[in-house]
Amino acid sequence: MSKLSQKNNNEDANLEDNFQKAFEEISKLKEAIAPDLMLKFYAYYKQATFGNKFTFNSGLDVRSAFKFNAWMQLNGMSSTDAKKEYIKLANNILNKK
Q1: Which among 27, 77, 73 has a CA at the least distance from the CA of 49?
Q2: Do 71 and 47 form a contact (C-beta atoms < 8 A)?
Q3: Residue 4: which H helix or E strand, with range?
Q4: Tell me: the pLDDT tens digits for 4-48?
Q5: Which among 39, 91, 89 is positioned nearest to 63, based on CA atoms?
Q6: Residue spans of beta strands (DSSP E) within 6-60
Q7: Which residue in 18, 55, 85, 94 has the fewest CB atoms around it within 10 Å?
Q8: What three-state secondary structure class fits 86?
Q9: How many degrees, rounded to 5, is the angle at CA 58 between CA 85 and CA 37?
């Protein structure tokens, strides 16, 4: 394996680890997070894990419609970029707590 592909594999592993840690830390928060930020977390998470494979089967619930809309706004964003944005947003929130 070349040094370049080893570097990419390490970067991918670090990104995945950081993404999982950010998800766990945000999930453990006791304080409420503003709804608009929660929508961003939801959308980045869905884009990072499912990409552009949008599904909407939650009925006519307004909350679900907002979540779906937030996710759709990230259409075309790569999984890598969505993970980076999730981590950045999580760090902003966690550093304020």
Answers
A1: 77
A2: yes
A3: helix 3-28
A4: 445 566 777 899 999 999 999 999 999 999 999 999 999 999 999
A5: 39
A6: none
A7: 55
A8: helix
A9: 25
> Helix, strand or coil for residue 29?
coil
Cα Rg of the chain, angstroms? 15
Q: State how far Cα 62 lies from the chain centre.
A: 21
Q: What share of the chain is helix, strand, coil (3-state, %, to 5)?
A: 75, 0, 25
Q: How many residues appear in the chain?
A: 97
Q: How many CB atoms are closer than 10 A to CB 51?
A: 15
8 Å CB contact between 23 and 58: no
What contacts 24+ positions apart, CB below 8 Å, involve 33-40? 33/93, 37/89, 37/93, 39/66, 39/67, 39/70, 40/70, 40/89
- The token pair at 44 is 């980045």
Its pTM surpasses 0.90:
no
The encoded tokens of residue 54 equal: 């949008």
Q: How far apart are CA 51 and CA 68, in angstroms?
A: 13
